[in-house]
Amino acid sequence: xxxxxxxxxxxxxxxxxxxxxxxxxxxxxxxxxxxxxxxxxxxxxxxxxxxxxxxxxxxxxxxxxxxxxxxxxxxxxxxxxxxxxxxxxxxxxxxxxxxxxxxxxxxxxxxxxxxxxxxxxxxxxxxxxxxxxxxxxxxxxxxxxxxxxxxxxxxxxxxxxxxxxxxxxxxxxxxxxxxxxxxxxxxxxxxxxxxxxxxxxxxxxxxxxxxxxxxxxxxxxxxxxxxxxxxxxxxxxxxxxxxxxxxxxxxxxxxxxxxxxxxxxxxxxxxxxxxxxxxxxxxxxxxxxxxxxxxxxxxxxxxxxxxxxxxxxxxxxxxxxxxxxxxxxxxxxxxxxxxxxxxxxxxxxxxxxxxxxxxxxxxxxxxxxxxxxxxxxxxxxxxxxxxxxxxxxxxxxxxxxxxxxxx
Length: 407
Ligand code: FAD
Hints:
By secondary structure, this protein is α+β, with helices and mostly antiparallel strands. The chain has two domains: 2-191 and 352-404, FAD/NAD(P)-binding domain, CATH 3.50.50; 196-344, Elongation Factor Tu (Ef-tu), domain 3, CATH 2.40.30. 32% of the residues lie in helices and 24% in strands. It has helices at 12-23, 39-47, 70-75, 78-87, 107-119, 174-181, 203-208, 239-245, 264-274, 280-284, 290-307, 324-335, 391-404; strands at residues 2-8, 28-31, 50-53, 61-62, 92-94, 99-102, 123-125, 130-135, 143-147, 150-159, 186-192, 196-197, 213-220, 223-231, 235-237, 254-257, 337-339, 343-344, 352-357, 375-377, 385-386. Strands 1, 2, 7, 8, 9, 10 and 20 form a seven-stranded mixed β-sheet that branches. Strands 17-16-13-14-15-12-18 form a seven-stranded antiparallel β-sheet. A three-stranded antiparallel β-sheet has the order 3-6-5. Helix 1 (12-23) packs parallel to helix 5 and helix 9 crosses helix 12. Flavin-adenine dinucleotide is lined by residues 8-14, 31-34, 39-40, 43-45, 49-50, 129-130, 160-162, 165-166, 170, 172, 174, 351-352, 379-381, 390-393, 396. Residues 8-14, 31-34, 39-40, 43-45, 49-50, 129-130, 160-162, 165-166, 170, 172, 174, 351-352, 379-381, 390-393, 396 line the site of flavin-adenine dinucleotide.
């Protein structure tokens, strides 16, 4: 069968591209090896799909070429996608920080995309794996695909097969193999927006505090995020943790401010003067839960005893017992806790894949390979990764839309 456009991957980017290309009058076939389209859309945003963000800016994306995403994001904006959502009468709300979620369920977004594809005559074919891609050596170019459902040819081939995160949702390294076949450079991939694991001596604290959370500022490699941090049985999770994980490299320390609105050294001095008999644990429990205060005070004091001369073996019970140096040391632990995660949960639970196809290989206007006529890459398979908050879907919509103008 011959089509103008074949898109591999019926996810966020692929379906958007299919609908828009179909509206342009192109004959479009979307192939996916999964038994259902848009599985990640259905799982996203806790089942409510955080489909975009009011504040989409290029600096919310990680990419080796920081300029690459600007063009597509400015031509298909969050307002365009919100317009589409409203046209379909899908109720939505802003949760926080501009993050837009469906009021009801994520399937509203998937059904909207499938209905747009349907109306535009774009065909979505599931349970189809692509075994081989051949570039046609004819004057007009094009591609021939051998698939488990037969042979197809097309003028334009769009790779929208996503990244490696969550293999159980259909993720595969297919896009990177296509890049290799056509000699396109890729950056090494790693899991992003992913919880940290802790297997060292901090593990017991994580287990004891599992389910507890607090608002923190997390810093690593010059980036910082403010938000919730959640202790889990296996380590750390929560929005601030997922955000910083995309900037973290194995072995690096994180700096965590557990009391981001408090200059603890100063407040400690003031309180020592006013309430000298107050215990350190009760003092900290003004801002953190009793359980967190107890666990963290014990952890920090035992660390300070082991690693510095500031504390002797016995630990202070009241604020009156603390000297200036000790107050500074405790304050530093709470305001700038240095923690080295053991690793991350990896692709099993990661929301995104960092790295991927080098954007220098692709036109930022058309998403077409600069060296391979008619071969396009869109969505997460490219080396473009958004922050948490609806930015990854906005990239999928924008890059899918951009390619759809030219396929
Ligand atoms: P995908 O949506 O992953 O689609 C790729 C498609 O290609 C899939 O259907 C897959 O089956 C298919 N495919 C893969 N390999 C092959 C192959 N070999 N042959 C044929 N087909 C293949 N982002 C947000 O902005 N907001 C959120 O709320 C949000 N929540 C998320 C929650 C979870 C649990 C996860 C995992 C991710 C979440 N993301 C969220 C990220 C977002 O889902 C992705 O960035 C986005 O889906 C990428 O779109 P894509 O079209 O490039 O890839």
